[in-house]
Sequence to fold (255 residues):
Amino acid sequence: STMECKEHLKAHPGFTKDYLIKQGAPMDTQHLMSVLFYCNFDFLAAALKASYLKRSAQETYTQLKMRHASYANFAKLLIECVHVYGHEMSKKQQYMHSIASEVSFGVFSAEFHSPTSCTNKLSVAYTFGGVTAAADAPSDGDGIMLILGSDFQCRFFDCAWISNEPHEMERLFAGGQYLEVRSIIQIASKANYQFYMDAIKIFQTLIDGEYILRKLSNSIISILIALINNEIINSHSMSPSQQHHHHHRGLQTCF
Fold:
């Protein structure tokens, strides 16, 4: 691990001036320890992530900042690890992040500010039954898996060589890394909703008045028709038995 740190984990150009780290400098002890604690102490990683979110609607933003202040240096070191010592993600690379319960999506791309663990091994994501390598809680059967990619030179830190569980192939994203959700997989049924997401993106393109430069497949057209029909049914307050449920509820909400 020491040789790995000295030879490969050197400060990359681009963010070094922002963090006052000398270009080419090897990863130091405090950055090394921050990743060690994050990867190998799940309760600490969970507490850090929780400090990014309000505990309730009644908690003020000032109270949230005060609570996060206890982890500010920890978070800062992890962000520096990603930005300065991390690797640049190619457009073809994809990583998986699992969530323990179904959620609704307002958009299919976002900046990931809170430390987020992903893996490039499908078997690992399934093994945790809805929770990735840096897990917080067991799955209740409603978990989903996000397939994430980026066209914006997103950076990540490879935690595999420093983790107690190297087979998990953990990758750390933090500090506003811009990722897009390329597909959603339902953990229990293993249903892949990539075609539904493609259909919604095409619909958005049409709404924006842009040209579609490729021929639409019959499956995409069928999905668009199903999504529109469900939206019409919902708008007329039909009973649940009259609605179609062949797709992910969160995707219909986004549509």
Q: What stands out?
A: The longest strand covers residues 177-186. Confidence is low (pLDDT under 50) at residues 130-139, 240-245. The CA atoms of residues 36 and 162 lie 7 Å apart. The chain has nine helices and eight strands.
